[in-house]
Amino acid sequence: MSDMKNSVFRHNGQEFIVTQDMKDAYNTNGYIVIRNLLSVIEMQKARSGVEMSVGIQKYAHGRSDGNKMKSRQTLWNQPGKDITGVLVRIQRIAGTMEELIGQGEIYHYHSKLMMKDAYEGGAHVWHQDYGYWYNNGCIFSDMGSCFLPLDECKRENSCLQVLAGSHRLGRIDHITIGDQLGADPERVDKVRKLFPHVYVEMCPGDALFFHCNLLHTSDQNTSSSRRWVLIASYNTRANNPYKVHHHAQYTPMSKLPDTALLQCELIDDIPAKAYMDPSEDKSASYGKGIH
């Protein structure tokens, strides 16, 4: 069991700089965690932008884990100019992701709010994001995501789990597992013996940046604590999908100064965000003949 120490960094509240140690850890382990990347007041702003959003609740839908539990999620393809859209474009988030991927200009691929409510949040099987995105026409795995908890993420309420370094395996075939699509369990069983299994416990304000080929999972939330997480995913301009699909093609994304988050007062920018109708989200369904 890894204690994550090689991939955990801390923001001191001053100007944030992506260091070579951060890049090395990301390339070696497939992820880094930055403690206190967002301040308390910035997290209050982010939480209000989520909890007061009409659009997020309007387009939320549940997804069963096949074991009597379900999670809710809302997904949007364009960031928009509201609080959640500004958050995923500030330099500390988007700029950091761009430097970690290291393949030039990035753009907003999509964002989503994952809602695992108390006592009923469903589990997710082991998977790679690129296991889905490969089928959307993305040639390269020059993609990544930033995981921003709005609540404490502990083992008790289903924090993310990763196999540190597993992104170096490349893409693993994904197959139907119950009601979900996940990485081939036979291969995952072997892989789990080779890489540290890390429970990524986080607090609001922390940020997890991870590679799209990193194997990850999460358990059911049977605790009394809600676990809501905002996840922003990015693609590189040079990796623009070769076919039109249900996530964003390359769209220029203007990165914003970090001060823009606290200056933003717009809660909803519904027309601009391109919220996804649940029936159109086929990323996790192609193994069932839907693409």
From TrEMBL:
InterPro entries: Phytyl_CoA_dOase-like. Signal peptide: none annotated. Pfam families: PhyH (PF05721). This is Phytanoyl-CoA dioxygenase. Gene3D superfamilies: q2cbj1_9rhob like domain. Its cofactor is Fe cation.
